[in-house]
Amino acid sequence: xxxxxxxxxxxxxxxxxxxxxxxxxxxxxxxxxxxxxxxxxxxxxxxxxxxxxxxxxxxxxxxxxxxxxxxxxxxxxxxxxxxxxxxxxxxxxxxxxxxxxxxxxxxxxxxxxxxxxxxxxxxxxxxxxxxxxxxxxxxxxxxxxxxxxxxxxxxxxxxxxxxxxxxxxxxxxxxxxxxxxxxxxxxxxxxxxxxxxxxxxxxxxxxxxxxxxxxxxxxxxxxxxxxxxxxxxxxxxxxxxxxxxxxxxxxxxxxxxxxxxxxxxxxxxxxxxxxxxxxxxxxxxxxxxxxxxxxxxxxxxxxxxxxxxxxxxxxxxxxxxxx
Length: 323
Hints:
The chain is mainly beta.
């Protein structure tokens, strides 16, 4: 059979075969490793430099993280492009843009970033991913081992996680596309785990006094109060957040709904605007697929690091609830 004639899932299995050779399904042991990765990223003290790669794009960032009285403290500074840094204390996130003299403050309790890519609860993952043992190697000079997650359908991507053999901290993460290609990579190039952070490692480096502060207001919304129905729910994806958001006083409120399977997530934004004659549109920004459509007097945007089929299927099933 020609390769072009293979279904996408079969083709993905063929292309991943060398990685999965002699790699048994891990079942509970695999979940234990993933749980160790999830806990390490939140509980350990660490600092270092990691690089994000997608296509021809590569950006380096410096990170420092610790846990103080049960609250995560984190600072990430971009080392390439325009200067910017992100400070996080629990769910409150402050984004500094010194060239614009702007600080944006918002709550991001439902969002995750490297190396904290895994949520605390992982129990349902085996229903939608085959968890397999990968090889051993070195990342950032540290002994590491890989855990592979192969999707069981065409609504999500595959993942390859490399964890520090000693602490369990995630050192490298590859997002694997439908043809077995690497869509994006996060990887530490230098990392220090444990001990104490340098003095001031978690404090802003930019002037935080003479800046314009923009507070993004978010209010949780109960399912019955959303005013919208999601008729085409994706297998394994459940609603994990729903909120009304206002980026600045005077701007219209938008509804932001987040669905997740425990690993992949899809965001739906619904806001007033546009006209009924606007056409549907699909696009992508790196591994993020975006689907736009008009629903009466509202503009719908569905986006996530999932195949284009997933965002379109979810987006086409959104309709205004009849009063």
